[in-house]
Amino acid sequence: MARVLLIDHDPATAAPLAAALAGAGHDVALERDGVSGLERALDEAFDLVVTEMLLPLLDGAELISALHGSRPRLAVIARTGGDEEFAAQDLIALARFQGAAAGLDKGAPTDLTLHQLRGWLAPTEAEPR
User: What domains can be seen in the chain, in order of their start residue?
Assistant: First the structure.
């Protein structure tokens, strides 16, 4: 069982992934904005952080950069579907540049996303505080 922090402002995409992760036996914490997500990631031990790139208060790129600087061993995965201004592949490239281990399509079916995350969900010793 992995301890996962999911950061996503959209309940329509966060809830199914959180439920699938929990259903697979993982301990899931959920935050809705970048500031709260960053604070929680720094205050608690997680095996994996999965974050949306387009977040309120602190965007995903800034969050990833801050986590990479503070906790370089913590795996951070970016999810995005892009928006009118930024294409998804550009946001994923930015996430990887900032230190994300991978970038995933937020529009992918939940079972595919869970399958893609499985390599980071293996039980590990959580990053110490």
Answer: 26-117 (3.40.50.2300)
In which region does residue 31 sit, left (phi positive, over 0), alpha (psi from -120 to 50) or beta (all else)?
A: beta
- Order across the sheet with 75-80: list the strands: 27-31, 3-7, 48-52, 75-80, 102-105
Read off the pLDDT of residues 49-91 as tens digits, 9 standing for 90 and up.
Answer: 999 999 999 999 999 999 999 999 999 999 988 777 888 888 9
* Residue 101: half-sphere exposure toward Cβ, Cα within 13 Å: 18
Q: What angle do CA 5, 64, 121 make, to 5 degrees?
A: 40
Structure tokens at 14: 């966060």
Burial class (CB in 10 A: 0-12, 13-18, 19+), 50: buried
The residue type of 62 is E
